[in-house]
Write a structure and sequence with these properties.
heterodimer, A: 2 domains, two-stranded antiparallel sheet, 9 strands, B: seven-stranded mixed beta sheet, five-stranded mixed beta sheet, 12 helices
Chain lengths: 358, 325
């Protein structure tokens, strides 16, 4: 169902938390696609558990789970065609970039500090590196989309940002430029209500992040970010608009971060447990399972089998990741320039014990 | 034989490269119909069209960030930031983002991006227009920093910069833009990045400079010659790469050195030159190395400029003193 909330924005909602369809809404995806979405959502959640556990054992670096945001991450990414479309990520969308073709073992190897060309984004996979300088990725996405359009490519760029990142100046510059250039880009704003410990109400006085799109001259859309069908529908429409040459869209995906910001964080210092409880009643995975169960497409046995399959895939990826080359001192000077300037080459030699710096 | 000043040389380089390489595009504030506030992009819009010569919103971070994305898409953007002082608002996109993207992607991506930015004092421009902040970018490994001082180099270095697979910050000496013409050939030639130029050979002292300070040093060298002091003038041309060998061998011959730049004294690139010489040319030095620079105060309003900037008189006085030690 689509409800017009303000002249400038529409709100998408299809699946209720109890798994029933919103009155008047239709699930416009095949059963097979919905099952595929659920599997990716489970991949995300179970990988979060595994990576967090490994971090606690000292085997994984600082990690930011997507827990609670799986519908948002998966529903948006699945609206893209990995062969021609691009993802410019922030960092809380790991399964979006994995689904887009960045192999999980390479993502995991990077997380484990096994950083080398072996763990880089493979050629032909249309994904940019994850970005921790928040919103800095947005102008890149605008430029990339603009350039693809100039070359008459049939491609769309989807880029991710959060409610916190949207307060950065780069957010404004990127969206403004995208509007002017009519760039084929979708700005997917995951409003998970938190920027580390800073609540959404401290980021902005606007009642809706999606409303901001009006200021840039393109549509803004609100979507229930815990409803994978609604996210997928909103993202698909935005991608279609961009591909048709009708320019950018800002999607605000209303979700909730059901975990810590990252493994260094302690939400008990600032989060009201009632908010977490309330969010867990809107769990994005539960509602798909309830929906599929109602329709006779899911059972306890299928649940067990699917989760076991997902775990096996993740374990295999983690095992492969552990065999990736460790960081080596010679790599420190790799990929700084196409060709190292003499002065830097001498520093490289010094590090390797072959000479002195000047 | 074609005589060009620096603005004309830059315009000619952009025009020829856009003809040669359909991926090259020029973006920035007022680069279209106006041809840029200094007219460096004059005529390019008519010749190459609005897809490739693009006026952007007033947003330095957006211009640089979008250039990064354009490069990844396969274009070769040459972005104009109207004045180098305005790069402050784009600093994050230049240093942490553009300069590091090759490394951040472990070599999957590189950014063939040139950022052109006029800078420097002596033209009484408004606040923030004259700041010589080039050294800030030397602390951002991954980007090259190019500082032409004359029209011939301006064209050759710009063509080299545009073709460099890595990002380049190309700083233009606005005071010299129209100071005079010299032979700047039509057609393709390049000046390599990382090769300093010995502009003048002398015996008594080496003056090391870049950009507009080179012109100052040449005038100072003329005055010094009248006093019987013969000066070598080295134009670094690029700060990254820094041509250590040419500077060291020039200073080894004269035994004395003076570094001249428009940036404030402390932690200017001159400090890097002096520290390098202190190590590499120590046993050839006959006197302490000195510097003539702007002072460690914010770039002042027009009426103060002549006191703030290095002058021929200050360079001559410092060189005379160093040569007599």
């Amino acid at each position: 169902m689509t409800v017009t909330v303000q002249p400038a924005i529409t709100r998408h909602s299809i699946l209720n938390p109890d798994g029933t369809l919103v009155k008047g809404a239709k699930a416009r995806v095949s059963d097979q696609l919905l099952l595929e979405m659920l599997r990716w959502m489970l991949m995300s959640r179970i990988y979060d558990e595994r990576a967090t556990a490994l971090q606690r054992q000292g085997k994984y670096g600082v990690f930011s789970p997507a827990l609670g945001q799986e519908a948002s991450v998966v529903g948006s990414a699945m609206a893209l065609d990995p062969k021609r479309d691009w993802i410019v990520p922030q960092y809380r969308e790991l399964m979006a970039i994995v689904r887009h073709g960045y192999p999980l073992e390479r993502v995991a190897a990077t997380g484990m500090g096994r950083i080398s060309e072996a763990s880089r984004i493979p050629d032909g996979v249309n994904v940019l590196p994850t970005q921790v300088a928040l919103a800095a990725q947005l102008p890149h996405a605008t430029g990339l989309a603009w350039g693809l359009k100039l070359q008459k490519k049939d491609s769309v760029v989807m880029t991710y940002v959060g409610d916190g990142g949207s307060s950065e100046g780069d957010f404004h510059e990127a969206l403004n430029l995208a509007g002017v250039m009519q760039a084929p880009v979708v700005f997917f704003l995951q409003n998970n209500q938190w920027a580390i410990s800073t609540p959404r109400r401290r980021q902005t006085a606007t009642p809706s992040f999606a409303l901001r799109a009006a200021g840039y001259g393109f549509p803004g859309v609100e979507v229930d970010g815990n409803d994978v069908l609604a996210v997928y529908q909103a993202a698909t429409e935005a991608v279609q608009r961009a591909r048709a040459g009708d320019g950018p869209t800002l999607i605000e995906s209303l979700t909730y971060r059901m975990s810590f910001h990252n493994t260094t964080d302690n939400p008990s210092l600032y989060e009201d447990p009632k908010d977490r409880d309330e969010a867990s009643r809107r769990d994005p995975i539960d509602r798909v399972i309830k929906h599929l169960t109602r329709r006779g497409l899911w059972s306890e046995e299928r649940d067990r089998e699917t989760r076991a399959g997902v775990r096996a895939d993740i374990d295999a990826a983690l095992e492969r990741a552990a065999t990736f080359p460790s960081a080596a001192p010679s790599d420190l000077f790799e990929n700084v320039y196409a060709e190292l300037p003499d002065r830097v080459r001498r520093q490289h030699a010094e590090l390797l014990g072959e000479g002195t710096e000047s | 034989m074609t005589q060009r000043n620096i603005v004309e040389a830059i315009n000619n380089a952009l025009d020829e490269e856009m003809q040669r390489d359909p991926r090259v595009m020029v973006i920035g504030l007022d680069v279209g119909k106006l041809g840029g506030v200094f007219r460096a992009t004059s005529g390019l819009l008519d010749k190459h069209g609005p897809q490739r010569v693009v006026d952007t919103p007033l947003a330095e971070a957006g211009i640089v960030g979008a250039s990064l994305g354009l490069a990844i898409s396969g274009m070769v953007p040459v972005a104009e930031i109207q004045f180098l002082g305005f790069t402050a608002q784009a600093f994050h996109q230049i240093g942490p983002q553009l300069a590091r993207f090759r490394m951040r992607s472990r070599g999957r991506y590189h950014c063939q991006v040139t950022i052109r930015a006029p800078f420097g004092g002596g033209i009484s421009s408004p606040e923030f227009h004259s700041d010589a902040v080039e050294a800030q970018f030397v602390q951002s490994p991954g980007i090259k920093v190019v500082m032409p001082s004359n029209a011939y180099d301006a064209k050759g270095l710009l063509l080299e910069a545009i073709r460099d697979p890595d990002p380049v910050l190309y700083c233009e000496p606005d005071r010299l833009y129209r100071l005079g013409r010299m032979e700047v050939p039509d057609g393709d030639y390049t000046v390599p990045l990382g090769k300093a130029d010995v502009v003048r050979q002398g015996d008594d002292i080496t003056l090391v400079a870049w950009s507009a300070a080179v012109e100052l040093c040449v005038r100072a060298a003329d005055k010094l010659a009248e006093e019987g002091i013969s000066a070598t003038v080295v134009d670094l041309r690029t700060l990254v790469p820094f041509d250590v060998d040419t500077v060291v061998s020039a200073v080894a011959k004269t035994g004395r050195c003076l570094v001249v730049h428009e940036a404030p004294l402390s932690a200017g690139f001159g400090a890097e030159v002096v520290a390098t010489l202190a190590k590499e040319a120590f046993y050839d030095l006959d006197a302490p190395i000195d510097r003539v620079t702007s002072y460690d105060v914010p770039y002042p309003a027009g009426p103060f400029e002549d006191w703030y900037l290095p002058s021929v008189e200050r360079v001559v006085a410092a060189a005379r003193s160093t040569a007599s030690k």
